[in-house]
Amino acid sequence: MASRLASLLALLVLTVGPAAAQAPPAGTGTIFMGSYSGHITAVDEATEKVTQIPLKTGGPFVVRLSPDRTRFYVQSANQEHFEVVDVRKRQSLDSFTLSDARKHVRAVAFEADPQHKTMMLIARTATRLIDRWEIANPEFIEYDLAEHKVLRTIPWSADFEPSYYNAILRYSPDGKFLYVFGHQILVFETATMKQVDAWDLSIPIESGMGRLDPGSFDESTDRPGFVTGVFTMRDALQKRDLLVVGQMNLTAKTIETFPLGPAPVGGDVSFTISPDRTRAHVLHEQIGRHELWTIDMATHRVLSWVPVPSRPRMQVRASSSDQLLYFYEAGRLIEVYTADASKRLRTIALDSDMMYGTFVIVPASAAAAPR
Fold it and tell me: Which H or E run contains 369?
């Protein structure tokens, strides 16, 4: 009897103990993303339970989390309608459009101010005339979110043509300045919307260094006014391009960088950083081959280069616990991997394909669902 009991205990240790010890802890936050089904999908990291946040304006094109993590500002797939969603309550608070029966106002970029009072847009207006559509030049439009009215329009005067994905708006933490990311970073004073500064990243930041070309950014862990990402820097001495990690201080107009090595030739590079900022990941995407680099942010070393199964498009994001990686996009599946991408653990299946560029992880303190 005693020997049978000992054997049973040993079996329990072998089958339960090591498996539990080997399982990386799940995150405690919530994954949010836009869905082709016309809603925001929410995935609880701890349970992987999938729920939906209905939207009044249809399928989302952009899902922008406010810096204080209390609001989602959602742009619809037709680029004309907007919806404000409470992150904690997981419900729509408001919706609006600047279009009417005779004109279509489509925003190529937008950002709400830190106090959630106004929204600044870069938009084009198409007006229907008796015999044609008249397409206006791009302009800034400031919109009052409470009163639902346009406060002012400012003609576009920058040196590049704004379009989707190449124009980005960000406010300073106090809302006094608006940063417009394009070929340069242009700085506007929000009270007058006059350009007061410009930051040309193509000019070397220090003597002896080459030009910087911005790549992929991940603002999820940055303090307001900072942006972290990867850049390509030209090594004038070796006549080659280097891939570097850098954090921009928008107010001080400075960048702190460190090199990873020669820049990959061909394909795209995307970047993500862990919630505690101890590690970062670079995903090098080529047709038929994807490779993940894991970076120690303290020692500035690349810890590993791991090939991962490829999709036509894919992105990577660290879980809120920093013990898992999520590979996603170009479909309805989220692949869950270990933190070094050496092992696939499981797959989270969604009800429909996810929208491009809408994947956000919100910490548990900000994303708790209503009871």
Answer: none
Q: Evaluate whether 121 touches 128 at the Cβ level (below 8 Å).
A: no
Amino acid found at 105: V
Please tell me the distance from the alpha carbon of residue 318 to that of residue 278, in angstroms, as a whole number.
11
List Cβ neighbours of 110 (8 Å cut-off, separation of 6 or more).
62, 64, 73, 75, 82, 119, 120, 121, 122, 169
**Residue 9's pLDDT is what?**
41
Residue 8 three-state SS: helix
Mean pLDDT of 241-269: 89
Question: Structure pTM?
Answer: 0.87
Query: What dihedral do alpha carbons 67, 71, 72, 73 form, nearest 10°?
Result: -90
Q: In this predicted structure, what is the pLDDT of residue 367? A: 61
Q: Which residues touch 33 (CB under 8 Å, ≥6 apart)?
A: 40, 41, 63, 328, 354, 355, 358, 359, 360
Give the pLDDT of residue 200: 86
Between CA 230 and CA 285 the distance in angstroms is 14
Q: In the structure encoding, which two tokens stand for residue 18, read together?
A: 């090591």
List, for residues 125-180, the tens digit of each pLDDT value.
999 999 999 999 999 999 999 999 999 999 988 777 787 777 899 999 999 999 99
**304, 296 contact by CB (below 8 A):** no
DSSP 7: H
Q: Could you give the CA distance from residue 250 to residue 199 in angstroms, rounded to a whole number?
A: 9
Who's near 212: CB < 8 A, 6+ residues apart? 201, 202, 204, 205, 231, 232, 233, 244, 246, 255, 257
Residue 333 neighbours by CB under 8 Å, 6+ apart: 347, 348, 349, 350
Higher pLDDT, 265 or 73: 73
The pLDDT of 207-213, averaged and rounded, is 72
**Contact present, 82 and 71 (Cβ < 8 Å):** no
